[in-house]
User: Fold this.
Amino acid sequence: MEENGVRPLAGSLKAVLKSLVPPSLWGFLRKVRYRWELAKFRRRTVTHRYGRASLQVYLTDVTSVAWYDFDWPAIPEVELLRQTPGARVFDLGAHECVFAMMLAEAVGPQGTVLAIEALQQHAQVGERNVRVNAYHNVQVLHAAATETSGKIAFTIGEHIYRGKEDSDGKVWVDGFNIDDLADRYGRPDTIFIDIEGYECRALHGAAKTLATNADFCIEMHVGCGLEAFGGSVEAVAAFFPADRYRLLARLPDDQEFFPIGAANGGFSDPRLKTRFFLVAKHI
Assistant:
């Protein structure tokens, strides 16, 4: 809890105001505020080392500063991918493509990265970052990863929450399921998924891709989005049967993976009760 209860009080006032304002007006005001915050931000370009790559990154809002304005260590999931130069990779939820460029560095010039980002602002900044850093093997697509291809609603807040049915500045974007992306851009060797709790839904749209030898790396939003969309750790793990996949997990502040699944005590491990990274390696 914040000191003197300031944050909870602000949240309560917001809830009261939202209940009094017509939904259409509330949504309009949220969009105006979002655009105003982008417009007033003093944009700048920084150079940092992200794993093995030195990149120029364009900072356009407070989130990009918090996420990108410092050196990154090597990311274990990317290091796993480094064993397969020339691979085709999907990065679903690419934000401003810093991670996508790290993936491009890993797969080399013969490999390709398809970076999917649903919010237009982030997709445009991502395209700029990719262009400035001369990664010709990264393609940025302004779209959402979905269960069923078609238009899908987002709402504007601190992040974009896919399919959330409220009035917080709703926007519509094109959505593609993983199988349709594979048909259009080629079968992926590895898929990275970071889509704010929608991971289980997206996997429902990947039946054909799951039948191939693709590996998956998934940020599991346990307690911060996964359950809101009807998902769970067990539900996600069920897409990767033990006779075809080995499941590994890593906590955000750790560098080492640990095995999970039925052969390792199931999913009662307390480390799986919060956000973590799941790797499903095809056997």
User: Anything to note?
Assistant: The radius of gyration is 19 Å.
